[in-house]
Amino acid sequence: MVTVAHPRTYSPAAPPGPVRPPRPEPALRRLGPNWYSAVMGTAAVAVAGASLPMGPAGARNALGAVWVLAVLALGTLLVARAAHWARHRDRARADLLDPAVAPFHGCTAMALLAVGIGSLTVGGAVVGEHTAVLTATALFAAGTLTGLTAAVAVPYLLVTRRRVTAGDASPVWLLPVVAPMVAATLGALLVGRVPAGPWRGAALLGCYGLFAVSLLAVLVILPLVTLRLLRAGPPPLVLTPALFLVLGPLGQSTTAVHKLADAAPSAVGPADAAALGSFATAYGTVALGLALLWLLPAAALVARAVRRGMPFAMTWWAFTFPVGTCVTGAAALSGRSGAAAPAWAAAALYAFLVVAWAVTGALTLRGLTRGALLAAPLGPPPATARTR
Question: What are phi and psi of 4, to 5 degrees?
Fold first, then answer.
């Protein structure tokens, strides 16, 4: 009897050999534009601290050290995000069309501009006045261009490439449109360095234009966000900190309008400068009142989310930069009006800002070292069956 050896056949149901485990995505692939919020929050600690009356002699040095940390974080992120675009272009393009991610591209501009503001307020003591001014000017140019691009391109892409409705409104929609307001603030600090005469007047007018464009967009989006919150109820636990983003345009616009009023006497006539100063006081009073009106229920909703187990996420950085803008806005209003209440509010908010920054920063570093913040779901397993 002859035994015939038949060739081995492979079945898709039983692949030959051990199956290789699926490989996770590279961490860099998950590095989104929302990471710039860490730079914004760090710079806010330095900028907001400089707006308050200085305490101990070492306070200014501490603020300078925080600004240096923001500069280092910004440089690292710029390099990492450039590598992200170069190596993972498909993911970067997908982020532009994702309604949940695309608005965070406004954070790029605000990070540049926030570090630029810090360069003028505390950076001079670290790198010298001349270098600080050159740095702020370069960051103003880059941040303004990036911010205006994001303010136009992000809404355009979401409207034309994705179906978004008023019912989808979220506080993160404010991120790209607030960037021009931050540019107006930094521009106001640079107006006095423009040659006197028509050029300085044009610079001031341009900054007021950035202020007006941003404010108009905020007035369109903010009612939609409020209406959705009233209709749909509290957001998911992990997104609850994003409610603090609404404080950003209110505090930043107050800061911007006061810095512009401070720059006005050197650019326009006395009567116009006085009118702009009066407008700053009136506007700041209303805007900060609205910020307080929003802060109370937002804080209550965050406390509710904490009781229900709100997990840590990058959304916690919303507790930093928006609060910092309210600190600078309240300090500016107190300085112009002479009222004590805004100064006390600024001090209380700054204490909260420092604690929020320290806690969020520590949890972010822990998440980075453990790989949790950049972890991604495993991709589909590679095909192991072959057809013969």
Answer: -100, 125
